[in-house]
From TrEMBL:
Residues 43-141 form the Methyltransferase domain. One of its GO terms (biological process) is methylation. One of its GO terms (molecular function) is methyltransferase activity. Keywords: Membrane, Methyltransferase, Transferase, Transmembrane, Transmembrane helix. InterPro entries: Methyltransf_25, SAM-dependent_MTases_sf. This is SAM-dependent methyltransferase. CDD domains: AdoMet_MTases (cd02440). The chain crosses the membrane at residues 33-54. It comes from the Bacteria.
Length: 210
């Protein structure tokens, strides 16, 4: 699935920008449900960016293996560099690409997507992004999602509007408005098991199963 976005240009400054706007709050949201990952799990991280979440999963979850699927080669380079710099150990299979880089018959206990579902339109999410990932999620698997949800407060609406425009310009993301990804997951046959609102309600950390 080629969605056209390219985070290579923004990759070196992505984490710094996120910190400038949100402090550590986006990171805190992403780790809320990491303790739901069973030991020895096979984990698929999709769009993990510069690798902070990879470090957290390696340190906190003791997975059997991680596939790190990222369309941005710069992000993958940063994530690999982070592993080396921090002397992180664990079996990580870095793949530059999208779902087409998944191997047939591959199955995962856990899929993690943080601030990725919001890049797409409803149609792309439902027809192109979610189905191939669901194919590789074990029947007993869990999907950990952290992402923006429709804000109710005016300043949050304005911030989201600016962010979407910024990433359309700098990374060519497809979304023009925030997609209702929860509905997308439900339509794809998943069930929401847990949810915690973060960042003043504009981010939701969730656990989904079949
Ligand atoms: C908004 S960034 C979020 C990065 C990271 N998850 C974080 O929260 O810091 C979205 C990331 O998803 C990646 N991405 C976009 N489409 C993808 C796809 N179809 N498969 C894998 N990665 C993708 C981008 O390259 C980018 O690094």
């Amino acid at each position: 699935m080629t969605t056209g976005s390219n985070f290579n240009w923004i990759a070196p400054v992505y984490d710094a920008l996120a910190f400038m706007v949100f402090g550590h709050r986006l990171r805190r949201a992403q780790i809320i449900f990491l303790n739901r990952i069973p030991a020895n799990a096979s984990v698929l991280i999709v769009g993990g960016g510069a690798g902070w979440i990879l470090e957290q999963v390696l340190l906190k979850c003791h997975p059997k293996k991680i596939v790190y699927l990222e369309t941005s080669s710069q992000m993958v380079a940063l994530a690999g560099g982070r592993m080396l710099r921090k002397s992180l150990t664990g079996f990580v299979d870095f793949r530059v690409g999208d779902d087409t880089a998944l191997v047939p018959d591959e199955q995962f206990d856990v899929i993690i997507t943080s601030f990725v579902l919001d890049l797409f339109t409803e149609t792309t999410l439902q027809t192109r992004f979610l189905p191939p990932l669901l194919n590789v999620l074990k029947p007993t698997g869990i999907w950990l999602v952290t992402d923006f949800v429709q804000p109710k407060v005016s300043w949050q609406k304005a911030l989201l509007w600016v962010m979407i425009r910024f990433f359309r310009l700098t990374a060519g993301i497809e979304a023009k408005t925030l997609v209702n990804w929860q509905q997308g997951l439900r339509l794809a046959g998943l069930v929401q098991k847990e949810r915690q609102r973060q960042v003043g309600g504009m981010v939701s950390a969730e656990v989904w199963t079949r």
